[in-house]
Amino acid sequence: MQKNYIFFVLIFVISVGGVTAQEYNNDELPEELKLTRQDTTISSSNMVGLGFNMVMDTGERLNNFPGSSEDWHAVPYPSRLSFGRNFRSGLALEGIAAVNKFQEGKVVENVVLTEDRSYFSIDSRLSYNINRLFGRTGWFDPYVGAGLGYTTVEGEGNGTYNGVIGIRAWLSERWGIDLNSSGKWSMGDGLVTNHMQHAAGVVYQFNIKKEWSKQGLDKISKIEEYLREQKRLQDSITAAQLAEEEARRLAEQLDREREAAELAAAEKAKKEAEEKLKETIRGKLDEAGFAYFGFDSSYLTSGAKEVLDLVAEFMNEYPSVTIELTAHADSRGTDQYNQWLSERRAQRSLEYLISKGISAERINSIGKGESELRNDCEDGVPCPETKHGENRRSQFLLINF
User: Domain boundary residue among 167, 190, 217?
Assistant: First the structure.
């Protein structure tokens, strides 16, 4: 038998629509005008379902309905998943996937199976809510529909034409029970033949759009009339308050402008005083000068100690400042040695200041080797000792006030 393989691409276009209604604050309305859920009805929604399916294949013409237990095939776990959209027109578009198993020892096409056969189907269907013709009950929705699908048995597949009839019974606004039966007519030959598929499960609605019922529209008309009257009364009260509020606003504006001018003047004076103080502090630190070292030495000279004493005196006078202490070497010797020597000089300078009662947390000490010479006495440049001596120093920079 020639096998026909039919591929379907199911494209669902789900339109999110509905009537947007004016919202009212129920707490501000009289009891008889407060809106309730009974004043609205669901016009559209998305829905998802989970449940069980049972397959029955009693012959090419779906005869012997409803058959017997030997004709019914089901698995003992949830085997059907659906997703769809209910539209305001009463139509619903759904996609459904189901798994099952034709069971060994049961009947398919009047033949007793000698082994299990896997079953899988994916279907699309368009259904119509019959309540749209007779008026909705709000909890019981019978429907009929048709669609296309694709079914495989033991991996061999065929397309199907489907017809469905079912009911949805809503237990609440979102939760309901879905019972339906579908006839499936195969588009080709092979293991997939005409059969029926029954289903039962729960369905959940979300992305719900509502519209007003006739009762709700009548109530809204009364609400709007009530609100217009309330607005008229409020407008008269508001008009009487406007002159008083305007006078108060002008007085407050004048007070704010005066306060702002006073604050701006005070802020300017404060900044000027701070800048003057900063300049004074920087000047005092600069006056201390540099602490100089002897050639190839990190020991503090008497002159260096005098400079460090001035720095300590300055820091005791201004206990909120922090400084950066950098130590340097001249260019004679290797870079590595000069870096080590400058770090020793920085450490001895730091220890001396600590001995004068200055906290180490207020001093950031760094050895910079020969990287920051004060003159042109670089490697290979002949210079007198006095010029080399200018580079053997500790110096101080104000970093935080």
Answer: 217
Report which of residues 292 and 62 the model is more confident about: 292
**DSSP H helices in 183-213:** none
Residue 172, classified by CB atoms within 10 Å of its CB into exposed (0-12), middle (13-18) or buried (19+), is exposed
Could you count the other beta carbons within 10 Å of the beta carbon of residue 317?
10
Q: Which residue has the tokens 């101080």?
A: 396
Q: pLDDT (tens digit, 9 = 90+) per residue, 382-393?
A: 899 888 888 889
- 304 within a domain of the structure (yes/no): yes
Taking 60 as the threshold, does the pLDDT of residue 55 lie above it? Answer: yes
**Residue 62 contacts residue 161 (beta carbons within 8 Å):** no
CA pair distance 76, 94, nearest whole angstrom: 24
CATH number of the domain that residue 83 is part of: 2.40.160.20
CA torsion through residues 17, 18, 19, 24, sign: negative
352 pLDDT band (50/70/90 cuts)? very high
Q: What is the rounded average pLDDT of the residues 337-342?
A: 92
pLDDT digits (tens, 9 = 90+) for 103-129: 998 888 888 888 999 999 999 999 999
Residue 247 included in any domain:
no
Burial 349-364 (b: 16+ CB within 10 A, else e): bbebbeeeebeeebbb
Answer whether 137's CB lies under 8 Å from 155's CB. no
Q: Has residue 178 got a pLDDT over 90?
A: yes
| Full domain range(s) for residue 315 | 286-400
The H or E element spanning position 42 is strand 40-56
Query: For residue 315, which of 351, 357, 345, 275 has the smallest C-alpha distance?
Result: 357
